[in-house]
Amino acid sequence: MSQTTATPSLRQGPDAKGFFGDFGGRFVAETLMPLILHLQREYEAAKQDPAFAEELAGLSADYVGRQSPLYFAERLTEQLGGAKIYLKREDLMHTGAHKINNALGQVLLARRMGKQRIIAETGAGMHGVATATVAARFGLDCVIYMGSTDIHRQQPNVQRMQLLGAKVVPVTAGDGTLKDAMNEALRDWVTNVDDTFYIIGTVAGPHPYPQLVRDFQSIIGQETRVQLQEKEGRLPDSLVACIGGGSNAMGLFHPFLDEESVEIIGVEAAGEGLETPRHAASLKGGLPGVLHGNRTFLLQDEEGQIGDAHSISAGLDYPGIGPEHAWLHDIKRAEYVAATDQEALDAFKMLCRLEGIIPALESSHALAEVIKRAPGLPKDHLMVVNLSGRGDKDMATVTHHLADELGLNPDGE
Amino acid sequence: MSISAIDTTASSRLDRRFAAVRAENRAALVTYITAGDPGYDASLATFLGMADAGADVIELGMPFTDPMADGLAIQHATQRALKAGQTMDRTLAMVSEFRKRDQDTPIVLMGYYNPIYRRGVSRFLEQASEAGVDGLIVVDLPPEHDDELCVPASEAGISFIRLATPTTDSERLPGVLANTSGFLYYVSSNGVTGGAAPTAEKVEAEVGRIREHTDIPVAVGFGIRTAEQAARIGRFSDGVVVGSALIDLQANAETPEQGTQAVHALTRELADALKTARQ
Predict the structure, then answer these.
(1) CA angle (A291 as vertex; A287, A297 as ends), nearest 5
(2) Regions in chain B scoring below 50 on pLDDT
(3) Beta-carbon contacts of residue A227 (< 8 Å; ≥ 6 apart)
(4) Do B191 and A25 make contact, defined as CB atoms within 8 angstroms?
(5) Above 60 in pLDDT, residue A316?
(6) Strand partners, B187
(7) What is this structure's pTM?
(8) Which of A179, A183, A302 sits opposite B118 (nearest CB)?
(9) Which end of chain B offers a freer environment for a tag, N or C, measured as fewer CB atoms within 10 Å?
(10) Sign of torsion, CA A35 A290 B112 B36?
(11) What is the ipTM of this complex?
(12) B162 contacts in A (CB within 8 Å)?
């Protein structure tokens, strides 16, 4: 705990009650409290257990494919004419996104706790696929809750989950998106507390989830630090990542929080524009509130009723944000901006054509900010972007929006 | 371990009502309806007639868009209420209307924290006191967060009624009971509202365990739908909570007026069953 510098570390949170500043906590029904406390004890024990770390590291390397490359995006850098852009290639990991890092960590915790049944919520389906994957790997029953709207727009992922042996339960409540899927997963959990482990997919929910998901995702930032040191001999100047709940962003940011020279930028989904009601930018357009076990910024009305988020990207379509991001926003350690659906589509297209990489629409939001920011920066500015997932799952959405422009023919003629 | 950290206002409506019911050697009937379902007028009519139909304590649900601990019946009721324009002001107005006619029946507001948090805890408590609210049940505020609302509510003279569940072990129970007043709501099965009915034997054993720790009344809820089930639980508990069954009657009625009548009819049936349950 002793810091040599005068400034206290920003990496020590949360406190004993699960708070990052005013945000976080354990706002859950009594039925779940003993379970959450148990999970916390198990997690603390696992962190001290070298066998746990060893098993996680082994599977991360041989099953997930870590480490993920840090790739210098030469043509994108040239085109934008400013900052030197590196892509952290989480899209190349098993199942196609960073979500597997957390799913793997949590399934190992579930095994320690002797749970036989895994549940999860999913938006874009990447967390659902990652969870179904690790459940199959360890022979556990798996139920995935997914909003009916998301099921419609992310069909390939629904089929992948089913192929992996998971049961995908459509949720029709509300808008049929991620928030509603999370409500339903919580209802399942409260009903099946004895045998069920809930693998939350992002850095939100009741303590200790925001902390443990962050810890499992921090491998992204840790690797980046070492890789950039090898390539450039120094720290990055800026980090950019997209944010729904914020797990890929927190994974990249956390190891750098105490490095004052590193600028940290999170990109929320501005949907059809922050001036419209159709966006998913909880920090830019929301207010503090309590939902899904934590206090954070939420899209809500003056009555405290939660709003329906909107984004072209299902993975960002959530009216809240992880509490640690809310805190970093509050203390201004990180800057939070937003990108619209259209800006994300433009960035998507640019990466396909310049780098031969099809990014997830989620990650395209981070790229949209890079397009805005990089040209104004000096050529020796090192910018790392988290390419959190690949875009194969988004083909239907993108084809719908960009068919003419990209010369895609939906009929395949 | 039966001492609460906060003075539990010995003369509250809730305490008087549970004492009176205990003197009659029966369990209290605690009914739940969602405020504003299916619309303000019908909901108010149902609410105002509830005590005459035999409810001893009335829980009025504050609608919230994301009722994570509720089953389909209350989820749908919530959606109907919000769609019909229910607001916190209107929910509090319902309590004020009720208090004009009835000074004795305790009213408990039940719901989730965010609508209260958004309004501001002190403003909410002031308005709730003024309207004549006696207690609060806020599902997503466990004892770990007592400083948020429980302690301020108790200081404002409003009971904070805690839920205990089958997962609340003996180690946790004292913490759950501390700062609880009015009554303890024992959630008889793990799950959401409107779920499967618990076996009476198991619940009786659990209520017995809780009573080793406290003297405050223990009401049992979750999954109780019929007069017969209510009577079975009412033999040993201090109160029986019925919610989803009443909500379903309102939802399935052809007109709101018929819904109100059906809710009152089941309330009478439940009340009658509790009167004779221990004979």
Answers:
(1) 25
(2) 1-10
(3) A67, A69, A70
(4) no
(5) yes
(6) B221
(7) 0.94
(8) A302
(9) C
(10) negative
(11) 0.93
(12) 30
